[in-house]
Amino acid sequence: MAEVQITGVNKTFGTVEVIPNLSLTVPNRSFSVLVGPSGCGKSTLLRMIAGLEEVSAGSITIGGEDVTHAEPSDRGIAMVFQSYALYPHMTVRQNIGFGLKLAKTPKAEIDARVDEAAEILQLGPLLDRKPKQLSGGQRQRVAIGRSIVRKPKVFLFDEPLSNLDAALRTQMRVELAELHSKLDATMIYVTHDQVEAMTMADQIVIMKAGIIQQVGRPMDLYNAPDNPFVAGFIGSPKMNLIEGPIAAEKGAKVLGVRPEHIDVSPDAGAWKGRLRHVEHLGSDTVAYVEAEQAGSLTVRVPGEVNMNAGDDIFMTPRAGSIHLFADDGSVTRA
Amino acid sequence: MFSWKESGRIIFLLFVSSLIVVPLLATILGGFKSNGELRVSPFGLPQEWDLQFYGEILGDAQFWRYLWNSFLISIMTVVLTLVLGSMCAYAFAQVRFFGSRFLFNYLLLGLMFPFAAAIMPLFLTVRDLGILDTPWGVVLPQVGFGLAFSIMFFRTFFAQMPEELFDAARVDGCGYIQFFWRFTLPLSTPILATIATFVFVQSWNNYLLPLIMLNDREGYTWTLGAMDYRGEYAAEWNRTLAFVSATLAPAVVFFLAAQKYIVAGLTGGAVKG
């Protein structure tokens, strides 16, 4: 069992309170993604789980064991960093085996475990190279290899793909998801990229200003966001959030509707608007519309729909896909 | 043909180079000349290449003793400065502790303290410690005065090391001290070579401190030994120049060995690597 339990954790740097009071359960064997905008405290939270930052108050348990004040190496965790943090003067083999060497593991066992990790990550031919002789993707694999050999209870990833180019990022995303199934371990992954969160997570934790906004499965967050922040953060293009008379008519402060949940017609509809800009993505077309009553809206339609900037169109939000966020924090769907 | 701008640049570079090369050549060539010829033509080529003075000096056991003393003192100074300076700077760069900024600035005050002004108290301290007339009498004050400068350079270099490297090592089970030996030092070759060279050359050429601390001729460094060829009324300049030329070699060899690291040390961290 490697459930991570965070209870009433508070973190301050001097007079700045980064995380006021946070509690969270990361289930055993889950792939949990902490996501939120820059400065929301997600990396700080991960570093507190790792033991790289002291908690100001509260407690952290891993697999039922209180590790609040334990050293990072005594927590049964392994961490992969954004900048890879490989040891530049060591070979790939030495990098991967370094933690085991420090733990005084017998050399034969170190070799066996390094070889096993190298096989999983296809690093075999690179074992005698130094980090500077590797590409970005290979470096990140080595960093992952370094975490695998320690056989940790929990893997921690701090934006590990953000230094890679788009194509490699997609490839590594798939590899990480496969690795999770193969290792069957608890993984906590920090990112600011909601696409990574949606595609990899079993559980997404959305944070803002050190406060958890919502926790749930990716499609639950997509279909039933608790507040406008979550609604706007999950989904690409982001949800249209409309305030003013249109929301007030429905008894809400904010009305939310996703771009893909708006039907478009040239003749009739609930809201009239003029196309400002159209992006043809092939499978889809994303249109940016200036609507008379609703303000700026984004609409996503199938790629075969012909649209041009300057055209007038009518839009109708699909029934059952409207999110109504009230002043008191309650939310209803219509 | 060179443009005016290029010609001006070349003339300027030749001028600057000559400021270094001419005295060096004059010193080496002076060792081949007679004293009379030195007076008439201090910079020209010797009329006759007389190897006598170089031969005498290189064949003199006392010369090698001077050289060995200088070498021993310089190496001891380098090793102690590197060990103490790097450990101290590491604490300032990596460990957060109360009063570190004040302590660091206090240490830097040493940079502004003129060596000559401390000669008297230094002499008394060295005498009281019972290390007068020993290499330690020169080494320890040299280390003391070299620390401020070396700590400043080491700290700047160490502070540029990526924090995530330390984080990764901590997760792997490394503490501060292990990180220092296993990561900080191996990754600091450029700054180690740079500071080692500066300290070595400074110690190798030091005259004032050995003059005050060393009274026994057996313990003299080469800078004191060079005075052997000066009498009360006359000086054997050709022998002195041959002597000085022969002592240049170790410092030059040390510099050449460390040169490629020195350049990296001086420019390291200037751009994202």
Description:
The complex is a heterodimer of chains A (334) and B (273). Chain A is an alpha+beta fold and 334 residues long. Chain A contains 9 helices and 19 strands. Chain A has 2 domains: 225 residues, 3-Layer(aba) Sandwich (Rossmann fold); 97 residues, Beta Barrel (OB fold (Dihydrolipoamide Acetyltransferase, E2P)), CATH 2.40.50. Chain A has a 6-stranded mixed β-sheet with strand order 6-7-8-3-9-10, with helices on both faces. Chain A has a 5-stranded antiparallel β-sheet with strand order 13-17-14-15-16, with no helix packed on it. In chain A, strands 2-1-4-5 form a 4-stranded antiparallel β-sheet, covered by helices on one side. In chain A, strand 7, helix 5 and strand 8 form a beta-alpha-beta unit. With 273 residues, chain B is mainly α. Chain B has a single domain, classed as Orthogonal Bundle (MetI-like fold), CATH 1.10.3720.10. Chain B is built from 13 helices and no strands. In chain B, helix 4 packs parallel to helix 7 and helix 7 packs antiparallel against helix 10. The two termini of chain B are 39 Å apart. The relative contact order of chain B is 0.14. The C terminus of chain B is likely disordered. Classes of the chains: A alpha+beta (334), B mainly alpha (273). Chains A and B meet through strand 6 and helix 2 of A and helix 8 of B.
